Amino acid sequence: SSQIKYDDAFDFLTYELSFIEEDISPGYGLFISFQEDLFLLKLELAYRKTAQRFKYVNYQVYDDLRPKTTISETHSLVIPLLSGFSFQELQVSAGPVFDFVVGRNISFQDIEDLEQRHRDLRTGLCINMSYSIAQLQVELIYEKRFHGVGEQLYYRGEQKAFQTSTSYIGIGLAYLIRFN
Hints:
Elements: E1 2-7, E2 13-24, E3 28-36, E4 39-58, E5 68-87, E6 90-104, E7 114-116, E8 121-133, E9 136-148, E10 153-155, E11 158-159, E12 165-175
């Protein structure tokens, strides 16, 4: 896990935050792909729910220094735009992924001087390998996120994010409808 420590103007420790993990719920989506000889272009639209779990201690409340847990949930529409190559049933593609945030909860409400400035668009890189068997397609997906964990956190006006970014590895299953 990663940690951030916040102090006051006199360098007294006031808060300590730890990033524990990020959970990703199964996503649902549609994709359309165009293929010309070996070249492949694929556009996808998917829904994704992520939950980042944090633990924090408020050192300003001396009679209760037990760690508390909070979960930051994000609901997004994810749009990967992939291009690559198709070798019969095997497809290999890569490209940018755009993550449009459509909803989120507010966490860390009881931490004084901690502000959250969320971005509604996050980006990354997606690499996809898929194999088709009749009307079914099995995918192996790697996604590297360009935003950091907790980059929305500002303490006393200064950004105080974790030095961690996330990457995802996923498996997808699709039913193909072919238009020829």
